[in-house]
Write a structure and sequence with these properties.
heterodimer; A: about 250 residues; mainly alpha; 10 helices; about 60% helix; B: about 220 residues; about 70% helix; about 0% strand; elongated
Chain lengths: ~250, ~220
Amino acid sequence: MRFLTGPGTQAGDWHETKGEPGRTPSMLAAADMPALGPRALLHVALRGTPRPRGTSVNVAPRAEADVAMERYAEGDDASFGAVYDALAPRLYGYLLRQTRDRARAEDLLQQTMLNIHRARASFIPGAEVTPWAFAIARRLLVDSLRRGKREMLSDDGELDPGPDRGPMADEVAQARELATRVERVLAKLPQSQRAAFELIKQEGLSVAEAAQVLGTTVAAVKLRAHRAYEALRGALGDVLGGAEGGKT
Amino acid sequence: MSATPPPADLRSRVLAAASAEPVVPRGAGARRRIIALVAGFMAPLAISLYLGWPRAGRRPLEYVVALSVAWLVVGLAATWGGVSRGRSMLGRSATVRLVVATLTPAALLATWLVAALTWPQTLYDHATVGDHIVCVVFTLLLAVGPLVAFAIVRRRSDPVAPRLTGAAIGAASGAWGALGIELHCSHASPGHILLGHVLPVAFLTVVGALIGGTVLAIRSENGEN
């Protein structure tokens, strides 16, 4: 996993950090957090993690999940652990953001992984695992919502930051405030636009993958995500304006 | 992309739950699917044998051969587009499945129209209401085997649009049923083809859509859909 690291780090620089298991970007300590620009703040607000410079959105070990699932389907029982390791962090992040309920997110993640396990015998050689896994997670999430077992998202609903979170930097506080604003804007959008935007901008899926997850065309997803982004830009013009101003 | 590590104990819980529910590897799964498909197509074959060998009746043999080949192609295309998932675990695109579900009955009707215009004497055949009912019943019976086989093959595999997939599967199985009855029915009047042979395909499309929501959908661990 990539983390921002300590003193001397330029804003937006990233390093591979090993040996810090369980430490997530959302747990960045104030001392570790360099000054973030408006764009970086918006990125933190959208994704929960700063985005490394020069990297594409899809930094997930996508191939890892595909290879592990391939091995699992071929009969290597131990590979299911690798499938879990490759998929669980992204799926959990997605489910946690959608449910704002750790217990429910864990339950849905477990169900998603079990559905992947059940499809072992019918896994298509060469098939992409990530969009399929997100589609399963989304389906289970939607069913859970329909059953009314989810605490409805409210405008002021905020995710429990967890017990071992470090001291808050101003930037983190700003990012969280911005995240709340983003959520309010997203909550007002049509569900189709919101889902497309979340899968692409928050979960890092490609447009083609998001189209598969949503069961629609690439063009439709592009349009929906673009409209959501336009709405967001309209509502957060002050932040983005600052970003563009800073760029010149 | 935001990756949030789930709790450490969840991994062991998931792995334990997976081991408690063993699933065969792909090779064994493929064999089971082939068995299901063979069994599914043996059922209409048995019904066909009950009905006797294929016969042209009062229809020109060329008409029967041409229409059977055309409906075979429709059945194969519908199975390819509606049942097979291609290279994606999420199946073929929604557009392909929608085309299969909506255009399969239309394709059967269109190919029949071409055959009927090529051999116009078949248009003057007269079939009774009883003939229509017999063909409806046998078309449905001939389609049940493929429908069940397709449903087994695609069971709990569609997290996005199971009803649409179900409709496509229903249409594909209906096309096979229509082909089976076409080989035996000696009537070729427009009304009979429409009511006795094509209407059941549309009916099966609706049935497929209805069962798709429960049979093909991804379900939660506790069996809730």
